Amino acid sequence: MAANSFMVPLGTPAPPFDLTAIDGGSVSLTDLKGSPATLVIFLSNHCPYVRHIEHGLGVMVAEYGSHLSAVGICSNDNVNYPDDDATHLAEQAARAGFTFPYLLDDTQEVAKAYRAACTPDFFLYDSAFKLAYRGQFDASRPRNDIPVTGESLRGAVDALLAGDPVDDDQIPSIGCGIKWRPGNEPS
Questions:
Q1: Counts for the chain of helices (H) and strands (E), in that order
Q2: 3-state SS, residue 185
Q3: Do the beta carbons of residue 72 and residue 98 sit within 8 Å?
Q4: C-alpha to C-alpha distance for 39 and 70, rounded to whole angstroms
Q5: E strands, 13-65, in order
Q6: What's the rounded Cα separation, in Å, for the pair 71 and 182?
Q7: pTM to 2 decimals?
């Protein structure tokens, strides 16, 4: 069933994290410091909404290079959804061309801290780690015949990098609801 992002208030500070990457290393929020913009993306491998945009997302993040720090986080219950385990996420990263670290939120505490609701769920922060954008990648959805461009997220990144205000009229992301472990659903 499709879910919308919660639309966390703009200006909210990025919650800290230190998570294991699919390659076995670890990445923290402070590791992303130094870029003018930081993108935290909640993703999964099995969700058709993510699969629909994953290649376009990989291309977009790579195009911004060092101007945009990015990290993907999978918070799904990978026991009941084994397509979202580290092995399958590594396959997805290769397939989609992800050049950013892909992290495992096994406790699901990071998803709760960010108030992530769905995959994909995008959180774009300025250089001070204040939330500047939380919305859709673009208007494309599985089966709606609109091309995947990343237009909405690109517009926000471009404004942030130019030092311009990001339009606060933002459309929520839509995707598969995060697969919470039984009893671990946010309150």
A1: 4, 10
A2: coil
A3: yes
A4: 5
A5: 18-21, 26-28, 37-42
A6: 26
A7: 0.95
Which tokens go with 104? Answer: 């495992």
Contact 122, 133 (CB under 8 A): yes
Ramachandran assignment for 9, one of left (phi > 0), alpha (psi -120 to 50 degrees), beta (any other):
beta
- The answer to whether residues 112 and 184 touch, using CB atoms and an 8 Å cutoff, is no
Mean pLDDT of the chain: 94
pLDDT tens by residue, 78-102: 999 999 999 999 999 999 999 999 9
Tokens of residue 88, six digits: 């399958």
* Paired strand residues for 64: none
Band of residue 1 on the pLDDT scale cut at 50, 70, 90: low
For residue 69, give the H/E element and its range. strand 68-74
